[in-house]
Amino acid sequence: MKGTPSKAERLAEFFQRLSEARAVSPFDEGYRLLCSTLDLVEDKMSGLPNEPERWMALDRMFPPRSDRMSSINGCDVKRFDNLKHITYIAANGAIEIRSKRRRNGAIEVHFSKAGSDGQHINDFCPKLANDNL
């Protein structure tokens, strides 16, 4: 589709809107904020249908699916595995999106938003500071 923003441009818009949104709590509100913001950006900018079952065929980004959710042992944080990244959402509503790959040995964080109590994922679950658990 000519004139359609690139995935990188849409991702930047998603991160911008997510960062401007008010901090939320608890987990359910964080998950809802993430999903609704991504869907809004993609509905407006991608020109592609919202058909998650066709994720491999469409150049559209989709929110993390609940069937890809797991718990972090010893922390009240949920992990969503995606193809190239991991999304974490804490009980306080904090959100963090990381690459599955490290850059120069360091974890590459693409986006981080504190929960309504001001704590980020690493504050809420310190053992995530140095590892993608």
Account of the protein in words:
This protein is α+β, with helices and mostly antiparallel strands and 133 residues long. The protein has one domain. 28% of the residues lie in helices and 23% in strands. The chain is built from three helices and five strands. It has helices at residues 7-20, 27-45, 121-124; strands at residues 69-71, 77-81, 85-90, 95-103, 106-113. Strands 1-2-3-4-5 form a five-stranded antiparallel β-sheet. β2 (77-81) and β3 (85-90) form a beta hairpin. α1 (7-20) crosses α2 (27-45). The chain is globular and about 45 Å long. The mean pLDDT is 92.
Q: What is the overall silhouette? A: globular
What is the radius of gyration computed over CA atoms, rounded to a whole number of angstroms?
15 Å
Structural class: alpha+beta
Main sheet overview: 5 strands, antiparallel
Number of helices: 3
The structural domain count equals 1
Mean pLDDT: 92
- The CA-CA distance between the termini, in Å, is 38 Å
How much beta, percentage-wise? 15-25%
- What's the β-strand tally? 5
- Main sheet: strand order: 1-2-3-4-5
What's the quaternary structure here?
single chain
Helices and strands, in N-to-C order? HHEEEEEH
Low-pLDDT residue intervals, each spanning 5 or more residues: none
Task: Kindly state the percentage of residues in helix.
Answer: 25-40%
